[in-house]
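Example record

The entry below shows one chain as it appears in the dataset: sequence first, then structure tokens.
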Amino acid sequence: MLNLAQYIDHTVLKPTTLVADIEKLCAEARQYAFAAVCVPPNFVKKAKSLLEGSDVKVATVIGFPFGYSAVEAKIAEIVLAMVDGADELDVVINISAIKNGDWVYLANEINHIMPVVKSKNKIIKIIIESGVLTDDEIIKCCELYGVAGIDYLKTSTGYAEKGASVEVVKLFRLHLPEQVQIKASGGIRDHIFAKQLIEAGATRLGCSAGVEIVKGERGEGHY
């Protein structure tokens, strides 16, 4: 049987996040053995201390949720997150640059970010907000980030109207190098959809409904 928990980045990224939310998130991540928690940057240190001694990784977001902060600002966020103990960095790239076809800007952005992340051997997931992009734009992103050495290409922030879809994950898989993994996120609320995304090629799922998804998979009551 597919163990969905090992695919899940258990996530809380709302602007009103409380310390209590992080404590609950990390306790659940330990209990269910999720792959990682994904928390706002100001909670990285807290999550790291709460998960000490477990295998659960701590991920945070950079340039979130719109990706239009300067490259220098993103690098500063990355450095601070790594100092606080982040294992994985989910970086929103400049969506506006994609829509304007400014691939030179985007190549420069990723080329400045990659050495900083890899100097500390951290995992980098690049978020492209696939729900607002055309297929052509998505394919170009797969080509650009595929050769940049990233670990994961991620579908969405969860803040656009359209999140993950089976079609987009399949499109990613078709156009990404084999070694680049896929993180699907945005609107994943039940185990059936979660399994469909994994079957399409996703190896991580970003969701705030991780517990409900795992309980649904195990047939533990209604939710």
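Notes for this example: Strands lie at 8-11, 36-39, 57-62, 88-92, 123-127, 152-154, 181-185, 204-207. The longest helix spans residues 103-118.
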